Amino acid sequence: MNKKILVVAMLGLGLSACNQAAEKSVEQTVALDSEAQKFSYAMGMDVGKSLKNLDAEVDADAFALAVKDVLAGNEAKLPEEVAANIKQTFFRKKQEEQMKKRQNAAAENQAKGEKFLAENAKKDGVKVTDSGLQYEVIKQGDGPKPTPENTVKVHYKGTTIDGVEFDSSYSRGQPISFPLNGVIKGWTEGVALMPVGSKYRFFIPAELAYGERGAGAKIGPNSTLIFEVELLAIEK
Question: Which fold has domain 57-236?
């Protein structure tokens, strides 16, 4: 091997070993023996998680320096008004990014939902109401039909048009009861079509579901949803 290359390789290995030793040394100097040390570390964990959730580029050394200055009563390296403006600018940009991302998701979901419903409406057994609600009968019962003023007992499963399950009473092993006029429009209209003992599958357009606001982490804005609903009883 060329001597020059050998020297460079050895130097690289030496620097790597030094860096690892330095990191190990830092970890070893931070003890977690006293209650104050444990509390300090626990607080650091909380702050670290909060910063990580912001999806921001954070310099750990600069952050630690600020904490040390504040705790020691040292003069801050940034004036208060400058620090406030920096944070305000960051959060404004984050909010704008999130709004733009949500608008794009809403437009994409709307287009996907409209395409899905247009194709689904052509399938055998799928019926479409005046509101745009689509449904198919899996099992037809012979009991009475509820009105929006009734409280009903159902088993159900909800998925997106991509097949992602977001809720299921079957998974919980327990049916649910609720006033029929207290849920999304697609449910109010759809379940009222069902005789007790029936099981239907509903394809609910976004405007009859959660609309632009969406719901939770799995139901984005303007999402078309699919529900399988089994009407067990009308409760008195």
Answer: Chitinase A; domain 3 (3.10.50)
